[in-house]
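Sorry to interrupt, but I need a hand with the structure work. Could you add the entry underneath, on a fresh line?
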Amino acid sequence: MNLCEYAKRIWKLYLLGESTEDMQELFAALDGNISIIGTGKHEFYEELSAFAEALGMEKPEREAIEFKIQSISAKEQPVSSGVRLVFGEFHVVGTGKYTEAKVNMDTRYTMVFKRTEEKQERGEEWKLVHVHQSIPYIDQKEGEYYPKTLMDQVDEANHRAEYLEHLASTDQLTGLLNHSSFYEKSERLLAERGSGFCITIDLDDFKRINDSYGHQEGDKVLQKMGEILRCLSGASGFSTVGRIGGDEFAVFSAEPASGEEACAVAEEILRQAEEYAGSGRVFPGISIGISKVEDGERLKEAFRRADDMLYKVKRSGKHGYRFYG
């Protein structure tokens, strides 16, 4: 028997067979203890009865598609006098009979045929005892193996998720945290560190810049404010900085050991703003309020006090800072 042609016949019966006679011929070629490994999540069968049951469940879906074998190849490799290995590949296309469903499947396979000496003496045919089929990963690059490329896909998905999370938590104009993300991260930092200082910042008469110079110039001012605050927050991980409104910003820092250090941060913000404006660029004054978070206190309560200080600065001439207490 030509096992290569026999293998091709089995695949044709499996892929194209529709009649009861076709299925009977297919099952007659399979050993009762055949093991079948496919590409799908559940395609692992250890005996003919399990495979037959699965094939029956697939019948409605298979009948709804008209399959055609574009090409099929097979090569035989002797293993022993009673065992033969046949391997190859086939390309199948399919079109839905009632829908626009399309199939374009390139598959590689390995088949193991077995025949005992007694069966050989009686002139009985070979039985298929094992099948393994897989679909190649078409995007695999030269010199790569599949688990590596799979991990590349996982990394890409993780990076995409991180990017989307970043977009959802970031103010797109300044690159600072947005309102909700700022308070969420600050609450976590307070829980970890136990104390800290709240600083609220508001640009003085910012509307005049938009009205006099246009919103594009106003955006540059907001971006510069974000740059100043990012630089001051440092890289220690113990500060959060956010744009919490149109021209309103906030800082929560667990770093300063004293109120004097927190005030030094405010003074540096004012100094950098004055230096920038002194170079001939458009930049408004800045009002700043500061408050320490008391033991067991909610963060927003401390920020409320910092806001009170900020508005005292506004009422007393603007461009300055006040520290609560």
Q: What stands out?
A: The longest helix spans residues 146-169. The longest strand covers residues 65-80. The two ends are 98 Å apart (CA to CA). The chain has a mean pLDDT of 88.
